[in-house]
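Deliverable D2.4 — example input (structure tokens):
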């Protein structure tokens, strides 16, 4: 018989996941900001060591949880769970290789993507062990609910577009008002992530989607709700972490609080982390097109917006029941 998980344990897991999700990004932003100054205060390789420590911690925790869950199973189920153990080992070996000094920039971004996937997997295992299972949102058989889920995905995509517009407009407003010092000049998402090509961009955004949508928003909101925390606690904790992760943008990062609060509301209202992740990834792909194929985005984004607007009416036609497992 499984022992009930206490509220303190749920809060500890939520806090731990938030630390593992945000620490590497904060270290990378701090290192790049430190590099813009006259004197470097952070030690060489600071961000790499933080990333290594976070990845090692996440991998060990994931290995322990998967091993504990798979003990005692027999037959086909045991073989399937043994495959999961092998996958954990493969993920660990891959990021260990990609963090070596001899690895290429592309390999390092691969390691970041693997870390994001491992952390998302860990979040799912934590929620499962805590009795607060995460629903993908697509594990349903009813056609109307599937249509509804795609409609919710389109809402998330439109929300990403609106959030990007809000951040851009806030930056322009600050510049117009003469508050350039409130912005960190020379630091943006592309330079902070160190992207030199579309392949690195895809890998970096896979990590971004896995960490921000699955871990920071979905898993944290689920664990805090399971711990019976007040709604404002849930919103405040997640929004603060999202603002901190995007702090390299200066004061305009506060706009992410509005975007994150909207994402939390939609997730808590409809459940399912995959609509959130799919929409975010599609939006990030349009951002990559803007960076590396400037002639394409206008038409592509217009098509995406039109498709999202059409799909967005689906939830109203399919009733008010959320697309949960």
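Example output (designed residues):
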């Amino acid at each position: 018989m499984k022992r009930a998980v206490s509220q303190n344990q749920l809060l500890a897991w939520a806090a731990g996941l938030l630390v593992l999700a945000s620490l590497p990004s904060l270290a990378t932003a701090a290192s790049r900001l430190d590099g813009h100054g006259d004197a470097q205060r952070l030690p060489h390789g600071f961000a790499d060591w933080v990333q290594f420590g976070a990845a090692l911690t996440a991998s060990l925790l994931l290995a322990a949880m998967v091993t504990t869950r798979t003990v005692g199973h027999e037959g086909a189920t045991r073989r399937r769970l043994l495959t999961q153990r092998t996958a954990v080992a493969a993920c660990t070996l891959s990021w260990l290789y990609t963090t070596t000094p001899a690895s290429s920039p592309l390999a390092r971004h691969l390691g970041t993507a693997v870390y994001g996937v491992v952390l998302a997997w860990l979040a799912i295992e934590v929620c499962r062990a805590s009795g607060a299972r995460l629903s993908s949102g697509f594990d349903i058989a009813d056609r109307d609910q599937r249509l509804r889920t795609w409609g919710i995905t389109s809402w998330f995509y439109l929300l990403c577009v609106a959030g990007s517009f809000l951040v851009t407009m806030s930056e322009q407003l600050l510049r117009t008002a003469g508050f350039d010092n409130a912005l960190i000049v020379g630091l943006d998402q592309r330079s902070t992530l160190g992207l030199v090509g579309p392949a690195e961009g895809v890998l970096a955004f896979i990590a971004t989607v896995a960490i921000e949508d699955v871990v920071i928003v979905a898993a944290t909101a689920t664990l805090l709700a399971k711990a019976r925390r007040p709604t404002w606690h849930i919103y405040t904790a997640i929004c603060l972490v999202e603002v901190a992760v995007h702090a390299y943008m200066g004061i305009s990062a506060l706009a992410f609080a509005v975007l994150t609060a909207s994402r939390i509301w939609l997730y808590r209202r409809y459940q399912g982390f995959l609509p959130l992740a799919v929409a975010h990834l599609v939006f990030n792909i349009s951002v990559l097109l803007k960076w590396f194929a400037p002639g394409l985005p206008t038409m592509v984004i217009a098509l995406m917006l039109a498709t999202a607007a059409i799909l967005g009416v689906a939830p109203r036609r399919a009733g008010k029941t959320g697309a949960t497992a």
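The radius of gyration is 20 Å.
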